């Protein structure tokens, strides 16, 4: 069957079959009509409501998307055939096999309609797949014509083997098609001097990269990162820099993209763009997005960071300036996300931020609701504060910038939309604000300010009320740690029951007590 990476590279299409049929009825080709007539027996099985229908009408605006949707449908159908085969539902296996056969023919016809040229290897794979699909259909038809259990049992292994071969040929063909499309787009980017052609090719490449990590690997292996950085080094394409950098950020989520970035001194190019004041804010913001991507703490490959350290001071300086001068919440989010990631992998970054008065700039930005306007932005700010709070000099900066008040406000962060991603961001804001308070409260002045602002009652409520922390264990642990630190500095601020349950026991015992409330 198709590999998980191939399946994951194609978006899930939620289709209401009747609605899709009504929309696509006038666009159905003969091939699809044949599929409907031959493959829609009256059945008591309930999965007919999930039938997947896709118009094969030639589309000039988004051929590749059509191809990927068709490929996803075929992958899904092959998986379902395997499931029906396991249950010996031979009627369903045959009807679905006919449908796959139709979809394969349609996909190949559609691709050959809009592609300029196909290689000999491509034609061979197409023929192998079509022949194997025809063989598969004939096989399952013969299975319908016998009721002998022993014969069916012996034929089942052959059908399974044929299904595996069909899936294998299909996977190879899709891989080859996507590789050829990436090559065509990159050839246009590298060889065309036309602004319009290059812009169109980069736009298509970006769409391709949005289909998942597998597509990004293909683009990177074919030299996509090299070609895009070449654009970023030519002044004649300045108006395309934002779009080019956005595409680079997508491709550099995979290790192959990172390797290419390292080979072409991509970090030096990004540093040059960020420090060049003649570039637009949009260009600076997209360069910051690439920095945020390649410094993500979630990446397991970090070999590129050695060259990053060489340029870190000027990159950090440029990012702080971008935060300070950001004209929108989106620009601030990208710049602050890059800074937040950078503070994770080197303490030198925190020291540079301290020298640049970054604490003051970030705290001031948080008072502007047009700039720091989402939990996502506050998450980046409090991440930077938490990582900087390991430095002793940070406490005085927090006091001067009214930072304890901000941290207290962040303990009240609530999700208003019900969106899971936003709820997770709110949890991170609460957790990191508690972590920052715990770290900074080793300074008596910060601890005193926190007590005066009633941080202790709020921390107690977060510990005792699961709904206040959205049932988050990480928030609970951080709040217990902060509460214990403040209790040392101000033991009179707690009632005896709170002290006995939340401070005196081992942390793990208090944690278990609170999670059972």
Automatic annotation (TrEMBL):
Pfam families named in the record: Insc_C, INSC_LBD
Example of a GO biological process term: asymmetric cell division
Domain Protein inscuteable homologue LGN-binding: 13-57
Any one Gene Ontology cellular component term annotated for this protein: apical cortex
Gene3D superfamilies (alphabetical): Inscuteable LGN-binding domain (6.20.200.10), Leucine-rich Repeat Variant (1.25.10.10)
An MF annotation (GO) of this entry: cytoskeletal anchor activity
PANTHER family assigned: INSCUTEABLE, PROTEIN INSCUTEABLE HOMOLOG
Name of the protein this chain belongs to: INSC protein
Source organism: Pheucticus melanocephalus
Higher taxonomy: Eukaryota, Metazoa, Chordata, Craniata, Vertebrata
């Amino acid at each position: 069957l198709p590999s998980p990476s191939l399946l994951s590279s194609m978006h899930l299409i939620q289709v209401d079959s009747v609605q899709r049929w009504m929309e696509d009825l006038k666009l159905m080709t003969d091939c699809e009509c044949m599929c409907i007539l031959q493959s829609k027996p009256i059945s008591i099985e309930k999965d007919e409501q999930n039938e997947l229908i896709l118009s094969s009408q030639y589309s000039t605006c988004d051929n590749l998307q059509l191809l990927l949707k068709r490929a996803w449908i075929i992958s899904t159908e092959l998986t379902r055939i395997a499931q029906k085969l396991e249950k010996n539902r031979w009627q369903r296996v045959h009807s679905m096999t006919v449908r796959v056969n139709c979809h394969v023919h349609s996909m190949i016809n559609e691709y050959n309609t809009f592609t300029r040229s196909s290689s000999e290897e491509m034609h061979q794979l197409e023929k192998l797949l079509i022949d194997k699909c025809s063989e598969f259909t004939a096989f399952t038809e013969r299975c319908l014509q016998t009721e002998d259990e022993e014969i069916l049992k012996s034929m089942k292994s052959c059908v399974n083997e044929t299904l595996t071969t069909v899936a294998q040929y299909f996977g190879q063909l899709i891989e080859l098609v996507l590789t050829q499309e990436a090559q065509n787009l990159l050839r246009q980017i590298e060889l065309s001097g036309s602004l319009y052609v290059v812009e169109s090719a980069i736009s298509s490449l970006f769409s391709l990269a949005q289909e998942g990590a597998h597509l990004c690997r293909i683009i990177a292996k074919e030299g996509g990162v090299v070609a895009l950085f070449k654009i970023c080094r030519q002044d004649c394409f300045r108006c395309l820099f934002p779009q080019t950098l956005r595409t680079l950020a997508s491709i550099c989520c995979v290790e192959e993209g990172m390797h290419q970035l390292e080979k072409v001194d991509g970090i030096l190019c990004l540093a040059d763009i960020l420090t060049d004041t003649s570039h637009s804010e949009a260009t600076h913001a997209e360069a910051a997005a690439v920095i945020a991507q390649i410094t993500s703490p979630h990446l397991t490959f970090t070999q590129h960071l050695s060259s990053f350290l060489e340029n870190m001071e000027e990159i950090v300086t440029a990012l702080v300036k971008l935060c300070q001068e950001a004209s929108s919440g989106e620009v601030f989010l990208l710049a602050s996300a890059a800074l937040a990631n950078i503070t994770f992998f080197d303490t030198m970054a925190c020291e540079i931020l301290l020298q640049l008065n970054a604490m003051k700039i970030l705290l001031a930005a948080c008072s502007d609701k047009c700039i720091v306007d989402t939990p996502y932005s506050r998450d980046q700010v409090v991440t930077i504060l938490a990582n900087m709070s390991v430095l002793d000099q940070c406490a005085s900066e927090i006091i001067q910038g009214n930072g304890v008040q901000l941290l207290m406000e962040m303990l009240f962060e609530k999700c208003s939309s019900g969106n899971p991603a936003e709820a997770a961001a709110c949890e991170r804001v609460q957790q990191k604000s508690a972590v920052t308070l715990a770290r900074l409260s080793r300074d008596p002045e910060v601890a005193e300010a926190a007590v005066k602002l009633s941080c202790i009652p709020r921390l107690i409520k977060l510990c005792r009320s699961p709904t206040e922390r959205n049932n988050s264990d990480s928030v609970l642990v951080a709040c217990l740690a902060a509460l214990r630190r403040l209790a040392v500095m101000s033991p009179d601020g707690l009632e005896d029951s709170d002290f006995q349950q939340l401070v005196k026991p081992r942390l793990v015992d208090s944690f278990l007590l609170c999670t059972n409330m």
